[in-house]
């Protein structure tokens, strides 16, 4: 009734021009699913991109965001974006690697030492190689990768200071062959779980530990169910913003430009958000009771080398891809 009253209060000409745009569905109506809480910079900037796309396309392209695993876990969303059930998804490089193996290349243990190296590689040759492989899997990856961060180990049991402290640690890792291989090489007992299951798995002690960048530990409140955090920086991880290939191909060229510019632009701002967060997040997590310690990364690298981790993954990625990575980061093993 109040809607009717409002409408009848409008001048007729107003109704005439307002109604069609309210009633008409967008020409391209898309769903975007992700695995992160709304407060993560990924969702904040994705919302900005969706708004920009709606405005610049004059309502022709409408993207609805489903955050926080509302549409299922990572494996489910990856299946949906392939089938076209959803049109956009932001899998971590670790997760999309279950479909596109080369995508895990940025996650080789201790490959990157800083963000200059990361973005040079991912906006350059390493990223180009992965994007081409993603395209072959009938998905489209936007040019600019979004930041997850350098992954750190947390535990409810004891601080992890050297690789020796990883022995038999029951640790959750993403659904990722590389993560399983790496933590086995470190002597731990890794289990793959989708991110949607991590909080409760830690709470119920199905696992004692997990590993994620500090901003994730903050927004997913993992400090509530973890006591110690070790700054291992063992993997740099990012999110590929991907589209269903057929849906992308159907989009007219002018709208492709609108969508790509908005998403890549938002991605660049999201990188800045994470960079800023990295300056404050440690103090915030400490104030919430998380005990943070440094880690001897040399001991981790030595253990990985000794277990044959680098040799194995050089073989799995192949000489060509490995060379491209080493051009960015130097000799690995
Ligand atoms: O599942 C995780 O740990 C997360 C959130 O970092 C990824 O998406 C890989």
Helix and strand arrangement:
Elements: H1 2-9, H2 12-23, E1 28-33, H3 41-56, E2 61-66, H4 74-83, E3 88-89, H5 93-96, H6 115-122, H7 125-136, E4 139-141, E5 146-150, E6 152-155, E7 170-173, H8 177-185, E8 189-192, H9 198-203, E9 209-212, H10 214-219, E10 228-231, E11 236-239, E12 242-244, H11 245-250, H12 253-287, E13 291-294, H13 297-306, H14 309-317, H15 319-329
Bound molecules: (2S)-2-hydroxy-2-methyl-3-oxobutanoic acid (X2X).
Task: Round the Cα radius of gyration to an integer and report it.
Answer: 22 Å
Inertia-based shape: globular
Which H/E pattern describes the elements?
A: HHEHEHEHHHEEEEHEHEHEEEHHEHHH
List all distinct small molecules, including ions and cofactors, that are bound in this structure: (2S)-2-hydroxy-2-methyl-3-oxobutanoic acid
* Helix-strand category: alpha/beta
Q: What is the arithmetic mean of pLDDT?
A: 94
Order of strands in the sheet with most strands: 8-7-9-6-10-13
Summed up, the helix count is: 15
Helix content: 40-55%
Low-confidence stretches: 1-21
Q: Report the biggest beta sheet as strand number plus sense, adding barrel if it closes.
A: 6 strands, mixed
According to DSSP, the number of beta strands is: 13
Strand content: 15-25%
Distance between the termini: 71 Å
């Amino acid at each position: 009734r109040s809607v009717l009253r409002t409408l009848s209060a409008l001048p007729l000409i107003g109704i005439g021009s307002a109604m069609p745009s309210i009633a008409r569905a967008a020409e391209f109506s898309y769903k975007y699913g992700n695995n992160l809480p709304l407060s993560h910079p990924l969702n904040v900037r994705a919302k900005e991109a969706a708004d920009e796309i709606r405005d610049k396309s004059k309502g022709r392209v409408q993207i609805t965001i489903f955050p926080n695993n509302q549409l299922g876990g990572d494996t489910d969303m990856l299946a949906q974006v392939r089938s076209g059930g959803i049109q956009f998804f932001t899998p971590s490089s670790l997760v999309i690697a279950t479909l596109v193996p080369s995508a895990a290349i940025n996650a080789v243990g201790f490959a990157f030492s800083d963000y200059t190296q990361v973005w040079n590689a991912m906006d350059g040759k390493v990223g180009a190689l992965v994007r081409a492989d993603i395209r072959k899997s009938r998905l489209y990856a936007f040019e600019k990768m979004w930041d997850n961060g350098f992954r750190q180990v947390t535990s409810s049991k004891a601080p992890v200071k050297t690789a020796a402290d990883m022995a038999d640690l029951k640790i959750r890792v993403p659904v990722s062959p590389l993560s399983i291989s790496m933590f086995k090489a470190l002597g731990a007992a890794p289990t793959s779980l989708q991110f949607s299951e991590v909080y409760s798995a830690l709470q119920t002690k199905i696992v004692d530990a997990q590993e994620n960048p500090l901003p994730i530990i903050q927004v997913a409140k993992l400090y509530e169910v973890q006591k110690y955090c070790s700054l291992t920086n063992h993997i740099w991880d990012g999110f590929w913003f991907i589209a269903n290939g057929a849906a992308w191909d159907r989009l007219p060229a002018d709208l492709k430009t609108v969508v790509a510019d908005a998403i890549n632009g938002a991605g660049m701002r999201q990188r800045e958000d994470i960079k800023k967060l990295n300056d404050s997040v440690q103090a915030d997590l400490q104030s919430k009771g998380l005990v943070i310690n440094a880690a001897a990364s040399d001991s981790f690298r030595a253990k990985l080398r000794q277990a044959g981790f680098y040799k194995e993954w050089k073989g799995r990625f192949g000489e060509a891809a490995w060379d491209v990575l080493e051009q960015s980061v130097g000799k690995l093993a």
